[in-house]
Amino acid sequence: MTLDDAERIVEALVLASPKPLTSARAADVLDIDPNLVERLFERLESRYEGRGITLRRIAGGVQFTTHPDYAEWIDRLGRQVINTPLSPAALETLAIIAYEQPVTRGDIEKIRGVRSDSAVNSLLERELTAEAGRKEGPGRPILYRTTDQFLVHFGLNSLDELPQREAEQNPLDS
Q1: By the 8 A CB rule, do 129 and 146 touch?
Q2: Are 3-75 and 88-167 the same fold in CATH?
Q3: Are 94 and 141 spatial neighbours (Cβ–Cβ below 8 Å)?
Q4: Could you read off the pLDDT of 71-130 as tens digits, one per residue?
Q5: Which of 81, 101, 114, 161 would bridge 156 by S-S if both were Cys, CB 3.0 to 4.6 A apart?
Q6: pTM of this structure
Q7: What is the four-CA torsion angle of 104, 85, 127, 70, rounded to 10 degrees?
Q8: CATH 1.10.10.10 is the classification of domain 88-167
Q9: Domain residues of the chain, as ranges?
Q10: What are the pLDDT digits (tens) for 22-31?
Q11: What is the spatial distance between Cα 58 and Cα 156, in angstroms, rounded to a whole number?
């Protein structure tokens, strides 16, 4: 198999993959070194630069997406969004989980100042969050974390891409 053949196969795998394709998964399918797959990803990124679709690094893998510069025309197409938007309470809860993870429901409620059962359950159902074990101590409460689906939903490659928080006192530190 030539390098060009491998690139075309990786391109097809990215397009066919239902979730972001990792270099490890592509390497496994092709039975080649993951470092070579990374080089192929870079070649594809270059090949699609300045085009209507782009290869983006999302959730530790790559995925084809439409270029953000063309969002206006895609909106005009009238493509229906399948997922209903997150409620303000769910977004607030998700932000707390993303920045404080792993975090308990009690910690979330301490920060928000209100009960968060419904918001936490909604995020679990959407698979944006998941259980991350249990905290040591009385009652051993469940810890929550974000998932790869969270990264995909927000177009992030890793949690390091989250915006920096403003310097303020964290209620969990007091």
Answers
A1: yes
A2: yes
A3: no
A4: 888 878 876 545 567 888 899 999 999 999 999 999 999 999 999 998 999 899 989 999
A5: 161
A6: 0.63
A7: -120
A8: yes
A9: 3-75, 88-167
A10: 999 999 999 9
A11: 5
